[in-house]
Structure formats: structure tokens, C-alpha cells
């Protein structure tokens, strides 16, 4: 399970983040290279970073768009 996490700014409107790749229910063979891409936006601010987690373990922090993590 990979999760993308955003950090809330202090202005009030929550940012939105979605994982656009891989597709839901995608399957891979052991040892395959997998690319994760998150799309994040904040209508009243900016996104400073997106963190990718496997359950509670931080795997990668992306600070620039595109927010991509290769595993």
C-alpha cells in the first residue's frame, strides 16, 4: 500500500492529492520497477512537498512537480 501525504497550509482550504499512477489494482512481478505519480493542488496556497508511504514507513519525499517516486 502506497499513500501520498500532503501538508496543510495555514490558510484554511485543504489541499487535494491523488495518486494518478499506477492504476488501481495494477499488478507487478517481483523485482519490477514501479513509478508512482501524485497530483497535488491547493486552491489557496502552494504544495511544498508530497510524501510517499508504505503503511507508516516513509519511502520518499518529493518537493517539486511532477511528484514522482520510482520504486
Task: Describe the protein in words.
The chain is mainly beta. Helix content is 0%, strand content 46%. The chain has no helices and six strands. The chain has strands at 2-6, 16-21, 35-41, 50-54, 57-62, 67-70. The strands form two sheets. It has a three-stranded antiparallel beta sheet, with no helix packed on it. It has a three-stranded antiparallel beta sheet with strand order 2-3-6, with no helix packed on it. Strand 4 (50-54) and strand 5 (57-62) form a beta hairpin. The mean pLDDT is 84.
Sequence stretches where pLDDT stays below 50 over 5 or more residues? none
Question: What best-fitting shape do the alpha-carbon axes yield?
Answer: elongated
Q: Numbering strands along the chain, what is their spatial order in the largest sheet? A: 1-4-5
* Main sheet record: 3 strands, antiparallel
How many beta-strand runs?
6
Number of helices: 0
Note the run of SSEs as H and E. EEEEEE
Mean pLDDT figure: 84
**Helical percent range?**
under 10%
Strand content: over 45%
First-to-last CA distance: 12 Å
Radius of gyration: 13 Å
Structural class: mainly beta
